[in-house]
């Protein structure tokens, strides 16, 4: 095994920042031989890489044209303080457009989202393929204000727009062999520079794959998102359609999906395949189960404040959604199935 795991004590300090965690995540990839030393050094010293962490100026992130959506407002979660839109669309993880936080917004603005095809297939009676217009017209859209907790220990509150994955899956009529759901991001190296440049794309294997157990996929919280802040998604957030699973670490919330497949076996997912000891298949947010190289007990909430704003908060089990989801895991040892 190529992955070197330093002793937990070496890094478990209370002032560890998610920026250093993010660099460690890249370091893992580097230790596996994918990144040149220059890439890592570049990420530490380059000014642009750290823009946004050291200033409080909202980036003018997006020139991509989004369209206003019609939706029912979320009345249940209005007490959550939303992360400002400019931060939601400028601080991203979308390795297909670069592994640094600012790169997805910079390198995705010409991404073509129309035409688009999303196929839903596999173990079901009525497989279907949706076109771009279907994504926003097939179901009544709802706003869902959710916390998003990245495995790197930063978090946001995002007003997503979308529909329940359960509603979509019911349309295709899953059969009794459908035990898991596999999701796949577009593979298009010409449009997604990270897919053809290992340094830019963090050296992970593409297409990006994620998966859920069928009951997780059918849980009412599981959202297919087509928008945020009242408009269609910009590319850096996963246009034209992405998954949002709010009780799991952000890497489960796969972007720019072209295929959803009902399958019999647990899918081989991107981060789990890369480092199973660090990124579990379940990836339920769990403050009691640390990542081997950093604590998951707290998180930096991205707010309107700058890097030094007092915004470190305790991480909640299942990211605060335990009431709706804990029952699905009641017979599982969550330290084993992390
Ligand atoms: N295809 C794809 N989906 C992805 C990622 C990615 O690199 N590629 N990053 C994941 C991670 S690690 C996080 S935290 C969220 C970030 O979503 P946001 O940029 O909309 O906040 O997207 C997830 N979905
Ligand atoms: Mo993440």
TrEMBL record:
Its EC number is 1.8.5.-. Gene3D superfamilies: Oxidoreductase, molybdopterin-binding domain. Its cofactor is Mo-molybdopterin. PROSITE patterns: TAT. Its main location: periplasm. Binds 1 Mo-molybdopterin (Mo-MPT) cofactor per subunit. Pfam families: Oxidored_molyb. Heterodimer of a catalytic subunit (MsrP) and a heme-binding subunit (MsrQ). This is Protein-methionine-sulfoxide reductase catalytic subunit MsrP. One of its GO terms (molecular function) is metal ion binding. It comes from Colwellia psychrerythraea (strain 34H / ATCC BAA-681) (Vibrio psychroerythus). It is found in: Periplasm. It catalyses: L-methionyl-[protein] + a quinone + H2O = L-methionyl-(R)-S-oxide-[protein] + a quinol; L-methionyl-[protein] + a quinone + H2O = L-methionyl-(S)-S-oxide-[protein] + a quinol. Mo-molybdopterin binds at residues 92, 95-96, 150, 185, 237, 242, 253-255. Belongs to the MsrP family.
């Amino acid at each position: 095994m190529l992955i070197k795991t330093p002793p937990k004590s070496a890094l478990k300090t209370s002032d560890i920042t998610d920026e250093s965690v993010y660099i460690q995540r890249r370091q893992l990839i580097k230790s596996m031989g994918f990144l040149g030393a220059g890439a890592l050094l570049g990420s530490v010293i380059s000014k642009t890489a750290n823009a946004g962490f050291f200033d409080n100026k909202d980036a003018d992130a997006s020139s991509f044209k989004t369209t206003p959506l019609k939706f029912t407002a979320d009345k249940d979660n209005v007490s959550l303080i939303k992360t400002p839109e400019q931060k939601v669309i400028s601080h991203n993880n979308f390795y297909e457009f670069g592994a640094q936080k600012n790169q997805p917004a910079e390198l995705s603005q010409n991404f073509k989202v129309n035409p688009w095809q999303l196929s839903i297939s596999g173990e079901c009676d009525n497989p279907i393929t949706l076109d771009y217009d279907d994504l926003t017209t097939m179901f009544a859209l709802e706003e869902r204000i959710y916390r998003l907790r990245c495995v790197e220990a930063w978090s946001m509150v995002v007003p997503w727009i979308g529909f329940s994955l359960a509603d979509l899956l019911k349309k295709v009529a899953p059969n009794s062999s459908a035990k898991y759901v596999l999701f796949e991001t577009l593979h298009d190296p010409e449009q997604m520079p990270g897919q053809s440049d290992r340094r830019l794309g963090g050296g992970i294997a593409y297409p990006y794959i994620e998966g859920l157990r069928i009951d997780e996929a059918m849980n009412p919280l599981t959202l297919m998102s087509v928008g945020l802040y009242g408009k269609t998604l910009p590319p850096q957030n996963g246009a034209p359609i992405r998954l949002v699973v709010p009780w799991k670490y952000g890497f489960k919330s796969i972007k720019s999906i072209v295929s959803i497949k009902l399958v019999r076996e647990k899918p081989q997912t991107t981060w789990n395949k890369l480092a199973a000891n660090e990124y579990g298949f379940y990836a339920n947010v769990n403050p009691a189960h640390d990542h081997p190289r950093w604590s998951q007990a707290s998180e930096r909430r991205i707010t309107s404040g700058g890097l030094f704003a007092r915004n470190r908060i305790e991480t909640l089990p299942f990211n605060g959604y335990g009431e709706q989801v804990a029952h699905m895991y009641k017979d599982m040892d969550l330290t084993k199935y992390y």
